[in-house]
Amino acid sequence: MISSKIIGTGSFIPGIKVKNTAFLTSHFLNDDGSDFPSENETIIDKFKKITGISERRYAKAEYKTSDIAFFAAQKAIEDANIDPEELDYIILAHNFGDISQGTIQGDMLPSLATRVKYRLGISNPNCVAYDILFGCPGWIEGVIQAQAFIKAGIAKKCLVIGAETLSRVVDKHDRDAMIYSDGAGACIVAETAAQDAGILSHATQTFAKEEAYFLYSGKSFNKNEDEKVHYIKMYGRKIYEFAITNVPGAMKIALDKSGIAIEEVKKIFIHQANEKMDEAIVKRFYRLFKIPVPEGVMPMSIHKLGNSSVATVPTLLDLVLKGNIENQEVKEGEVAIFASVGAGMNINAIVYRF
To answer: If both were cysteines, with which of 149, 211, 252, 289 could 155 make a disulfide (CB 3.0 to 4.6 Å apart)?
Structure first.
């Protein structure tokens, strides 16, 4: 049986640090345009306690999403020690395309994956480049697609990237603007003959009734701004309840498919959306097996990096593999679960053996 495994990872963490104190002078509004009743210091303190975020990263003005995707891709290719001409697919997950500093319009023509292929200087026309729009779970879904191509015998090596510059699509009058950040992560997924290594199983779900619009594109809370200009918006409480209710079940579906016992799972690389939400998801997941959450099973990067959407999981994975998160490591043969939830509403999970 042909399967696939990750043979190299890379990430790009933008250099501009934005601490929570940067929002002390923000003019936060309610969705109806009225002033928010609490002082900014109170808002920020509560925000930190819920999300865990103390700072986030923004990309320099000269870098667009495809640029930072390219930087992460370069590192993954170098880490895998492969010739980029060997790549069969470049799959790039994002949500808003290339957005120049100071504008709000996304540029997706040509595709960002094509732009990365161009920057990599790949001549091989059989290296197919395309984008995937799948909300925050986009990178994980790209890995699932790469696995499908490899199992079907139509690919041997795929580059999968998650990149986003969310700092350019936030409404500065919306408290949720503090959540979002910029970043990019990438990996090389390659064919392996190993029967009990790499991607063991996966699960993907789309919920598209009321929850389809829990994340949406909407007007600024400042009623004096141009109504034609839209920003990323969300119903935070509804997303929280949706995620803790549905993500544990999808993770269990993937684990059940793999045949792996819950006791073998050593790490859960979960989308860095909200620390309290992630803790609740993992707690409910283990509750399905009637066992407590093992200590250290959930590495976190949200405290310093914020929520960079499709980039959070590949960046977190790269940081752990490179020994850049304190007291976190994975060893050969250990089992991990990758999981994410986001706009769609989409959920996915992968069971993986290193």
So the answer is: 149
Return the half-sphere exposure (C-beta side, CA atoms, 13 A cut-off) of residue 304: 13
Q: Which residues contact 9 (CB under 8 A, 6 or more apart)?
A: 75, 76, 79, 185, 186, 187, 188, 314, 317, 318, 321, 322
86 and 178 Cβ atoms separated by less than 8 Å: no
Q: One-letter amino acid identity for 236?
A: G
Is residue 81 left, alpha or beta, with left meaning phi > 0 and alpha meaning psi from -120 to 50? left
Read off the tokens for 299. 């590495």
**Quick one: pLDDT at residue 273?**
93
Tell me the per-residue pLDDT of 245-259, one tens digit each, with 9 for 90 and over.
Answer: 999 999 999 999 999
Tokens representing 265? 């799972």
- At 296-342, the pLDDT tens digits run 999 999 999 999 999 999 999 999 999 999 899 999 999 999 999 99
Contact (Cβ atoms closer than 8 angstroms) between residue 331 and residue 197: no
Residues 162, 95: Cα–Cα separation, whole Å:
10
Structure token pair of residue 266: 């050593």
Three-state SS for 181? coil
- Predicted confidence at residue 90, as pLDDT, reads 98
State which H helix or E strand residue 150 sits in: helix 138-151
Residue 75: φ, ψ to 5°: -65, -40
DSSP 49-100: HHH--SEEEE--TT--HHHHHHHHHHHHHHHHT--GGG-SEEEEE-SS-B--
Residues 59 and 98 sit within 8 Å (Cβ to Cβ): no
Average pLDDT over residues 209-233: 90
Contact 181, 167 (CB under 8 A): yes
Q: How many residues belong to the chain?
A: 354
User: What pLDDT score was predicted for residue 23?
Assistant: 95
In this structure, what token pair is assigned to residue 274? 């909200």
